[in-house]
């Protein structure tokens, strides 16, 4: 498994993360098998969130991890807070961040989180409150590293003005089909295409400039949770090229789609959401593949993008 040393963050972190959003669909025994499979494949990083099935994903992970007998120090456990669907609000207040972390620790049956991310912007967040919360959590030994998710450039800048701890991750949607993160760079200032629209204030370049590692969520999905594009007949050209390149390297199509993300020089991680051990095995084959410059573009174009 490819690993990355995150600047001012976790070392030897696997390039592929297991996302636990769909874990409530599994029994504790099945979840334990999923975790064991991940670790055997070299995946040592697990992503969760307080809002995934109202805490059930954290709970299931915690029960399964405890049952697995895997040593706590051998894995990197990350969760996210701030999306309070039960209250119909997003909440980055100090009070909510602190109580969310306590709930997550309890559900996941762990003494500390390796990483805490703020999940999606609270429209009325006060950076001073975030700073106080992070300070308290770090001092109490409850959280080691901090980051954000779905947060654009100027909000990261605003946080960094007040928060002492480095923001080491930004978790963002990115896949061959949902590639807005990179598309706009091709069409700067162009009035003739949607691809020119600046949707995120240059978040990718900002993250690279400030050593913030991007974690790509839903790396195999099209649209907003519409389904997996691999082997979907609506994406014939993409699947043809995925298959052709997969054959060359002797790996499945899903591995090629993930290798496309890992090939980006920003050194992103990809968060696989599968809850099928065989699918995860396929996906992890990505680690064996280093796409050529030309193959990377072939895939980009096969996903329906075009060059100016
Ligand atoms: N920060 C955020 O706002 C945010 C938002 C969404 C997600 N996330 C994180 O990202 C993780 C991944 O998200 P995701 O689950 O949407 O990502 P994904 O890995 O792109 O999609 C997973 C889906 O693809 C299917 N799949 C995988 N391999 C397949 C194959 N070979 N054939 C057919 N279907 C296949 C899976 O089904 P099987 O289980 O049957 O394989 C599952 O339904 C989540 O768990 C969560 O941790 C973060």
Helix content: 25-40%
Structural class comes to alpha/beta
Query: How many beta-strand elements?
Result: 14
The major β-sheet equals: 8 strands, parallel, barrel
Number of domains: 1
Contiguous runs where pLDDT drops below 50 for at least 5 residues: none
Distance N terminus to C terminus? 36 Å
Could you say what the CATH architecture is? Answer: Alpha-Beta Barrel
CATH H-level homologous superfamily name? NADP-dependent oxidoreductase domain
- What is the count of helical runs? 11
Rg: 19 Å
Architecture overview:
With 308 residues, the chain is α/β, with parallel strands linked by helices. It has one domain: TIM Barrel (Alpha-Beta Barrel). It is built from eleven helices and 14 strands. The chain has helices spanning 28-40, 56-68, 94-108, 127-139, 153-162, 180-183, 203-209, 236-249, 253-262, 277-284, 293-302; strands at 3-4, 13-14, 16-19, 45-47, 76-81, 83-84, 89-90, 113-118, 143-149, 167-173, 213-217, 221-222, 227-228, 269-272. The strands form four sheets. Strands 3-4-5-8-9-10-11-14 form an eight-stranded parallel barrel, surrounded by five helices. A hairpin with an 8-residue loop joins strand 1 and strand 2. The chain starts with a strand and ends in a 6-residue tail after the last helix. The mean pLDDT is 97. The structure holds NADP nicotinamide-adenine-dinucleotide phosphate. NADP nicotinamide-adenine-dinucleotide phosphate is lined by residues 19-22, 47, 149-150, 171, 217-221, 225, 228, 230, 254, 271-276, 279, 282.
């Amino acid at each position: 498994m490819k690993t990355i040393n995150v600047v001012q963050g976790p070392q030897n972190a696997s390039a592929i993360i297991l996302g636990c959003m769909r874990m409530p669909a599994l029994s504790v025994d099945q979840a334990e098998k999923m975790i064991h499979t991940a670790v055997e494949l070299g995946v040592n990083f697990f992503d969760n969130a307080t809002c995934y099935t109202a805490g059930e994903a954290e709970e299931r992970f915690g029960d399964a991890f405890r049952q697995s007998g895997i040593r706590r120090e051998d894995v990197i456990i990350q969760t996210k807070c701030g999306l309070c669907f039960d209250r119909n609000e997003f909440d980055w207040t100090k009070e909510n961040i602190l109580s969310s972390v306590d709930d997550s620790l309890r559900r996941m049956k762990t003494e500390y989180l390796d990483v805490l991310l703020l999940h999606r912007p609270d429209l009325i967040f006060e950076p001073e409150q975030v700073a106080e919360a992070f300070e308290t959590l770090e001092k109490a030994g409850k959280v080691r590293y901090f980051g954000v998710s779905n947060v654009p450039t100027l909000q990261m800048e605003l946080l960094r003005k007040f928060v002492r701890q480095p923001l080491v991750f930004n978790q963002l949607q990115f896949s061959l089909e949902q590639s807005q993160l990179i598309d706009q760079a091709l069409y700067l200032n162009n009035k003739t295409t949607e691809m020119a629209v600046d949707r995120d204030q240059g978040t990718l370049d900002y993250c690279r400039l400030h050593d913030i590692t991007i974690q790509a969520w839903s790396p195999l999905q099209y649209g907003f949770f519409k389904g997996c594009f691999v082997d979907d007949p609506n994406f014939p050209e993409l699947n043809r090229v995925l298959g052709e390149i997969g054959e060359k390297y002797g790996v499945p199509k899903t591995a090629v789609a993930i290798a496309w993300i890992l090939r980006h020089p920003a050194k992103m991680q990809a968060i696989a959401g599968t809850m099928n051990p065989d699918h995860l095995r396929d996906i992890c084959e990505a680690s064996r593949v280093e796409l050529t410059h030309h193959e990377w573009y072939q895939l980009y174009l096969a996903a329906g993008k075009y060059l100016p």
